[in-house]
């Protein structure tokens, strides 16, 4: 039986308990480097997930049709055995591309907003061109979304000699091509 937003508070407490257990694991001095890196990435993802659950509970969200829920990056198994990544009205097939064991970007509200914009563009078969001052996380945000989608990401730092023909050479349906204008 569904508990509505009360269930979210219960799940929030469970997320906190699981995070506490993960932090104990990360502090273990006997961990190998690869294990520590994996756990650190998992902690970053889980902290964001816990924060989202807390926000949804505070807002009293009790429906999967609520915009605050639909605005989150969500993963669903399809009837044909594939995984889809959804956000608002955008749906992309998960790519299963292994991109190495690396850290994850700390997800902020601005990161979420950028994800929503890029997901919408990619859903419509467009690319993305985040714009802004240097050092504000445009490249890392785009690469982190690609990692969340299980897609290979090619980042271009465009300059005068780079034309659309350079970009078109790498565009294939299998790859997420990220165009950054810096």
Overview of this protein structure:
- The chain has helices at 5-26, 33-58, 67-70, 109-123, 138-149, 164-168; strands spanning 74-77, 83-87, 90-93, 153-157, 176-180.
- With 182 residues, it is an alpha+beta fold.
- The strands form two sheets. It has a three-stranded antiparallel beta sheet with strand order 1-2-3, covered by helices on one side. A two-stranded parallel ribbon has the order 4-5.
Structural class: alpha+beta
Strand content: 5-15%
The gross shape turns out to be globular
Output the strand order for the largest sheet: 1-2-3
SSE arrangement, N to C:
HHHEEEHHEHE
Assembly type of the chains comes to single chain
**Radius of gyration over alpha carbons?**
18 Å
Keywords:
alpha+beta, 3-stranded antiparallel beta sheet, two-stranded parallel ribbon, 6 helices, 46% helix, disordered C terminus
Short description:
This protein has 182 residues and is of the alpha+beta class. 46% of the residues lie in helices and 13% in strands.
